[in-house]
Amino acid sequence: MPYRVTCSQPLPITANFSRATNYNGIMNRGQLESYKYFEPNIRALHEHVKQTETYKTSWLPSALISKIDRVIQQDTDEIARYEQAKSEVETFINGIDDDEIKQIMIARYIKAMKWEKVTEKVLGPYYSPLAAAVKCKRYLKKHGIV
Q1: Which residue from 21, 48, 97, 123 lies 20 to 30 Å from 4 (Cα-Cα)?
Q2: At what angle do helices 29-53 and 62-94 cross, to 10 degrees?
Q3: pLDDT digits over 26-38, tens only?
Q4: How far apart are CA 46 and CA 76, in angstroms?
């Protein structure tokens, strides 16, 4: 049976993203923080699907081929869930009206920069190193995102 390809960092939320959104579909900080793991996991799953496909040959018993097909389908479903969660984060950030907050969110959650670097890039070198974090957290709190 093929081995499972994994990325170097584990996904910090469940595979079905049940903790990624609140009950009413509103974004939460966990989903924002998890964004940086989506792309590596998507790439790893695509690689696993490609690798698993190579195990399918005509001489294998049909029961084994059906197991391989189930693994491929599970991976494909998981890729779709990652893509959906990734799209939700991008849509949320793109919908922010305040340009400064949007730049902070992109730098922190999409580009995965540390808060000190985000402050320097977006706000400038004369701000406190965590000024961007404070602005972001205030925005999230103001909009009911926990």
Answers
A1: 21
A2: 150
A3: 788 889 999 999 9
A4: 8
